[in-house]
Specification:
The chain is of the alpha+beta class. It contains 1 helix and 4 strands, in the order αββββ. It has a 4-stranded antiparallel β-sheet with strand order 3-2-1-4. A hairpin with a 5-residue loop joins strand 2 and strand 3 (61-65). It is elongated, with a radius of gyration of 19 Å.
Length: 80
């Protein structure tokens, strides 16, 4: 039964690398631009986001168009 615990130490990093290669690395939303309907400082006004800027590992920057008018806080991108 001890060998099963030893295999877990190999499986977890392997699955983490496989997930990173398949889905990409996480990037955090840094800034965005939006259409404000004439009231930019009112948080209750509906906003239509037009672009989103994300930072990832090693300050990797990705600027994208919106996803159906929204900017998710965390997105996964490949580093290439």
């Amino acid at each position: 039964m001890r060998w099963a615990a030893m295999l877990l130490w190999i499986a977890v990093p392997f699955l983490a690398v496989a997930a990173h290669n398949t889905f990409g690395s996480p990037h955090l939303l840094f800034s965005y631009t939006f259409l404000d309907n004439g009231d930019a400082h009112n948080p209750t006004v509906a906003r239509q986001y037009t672009s989103c800027t994300y930072y990832g590992w090693g300050w990797h920057t990705v600027k994208t168009a919106d996803q159906v008018g929204r900017c998710p806080i965390v997105r996964l991108f490949h580093l290439n």
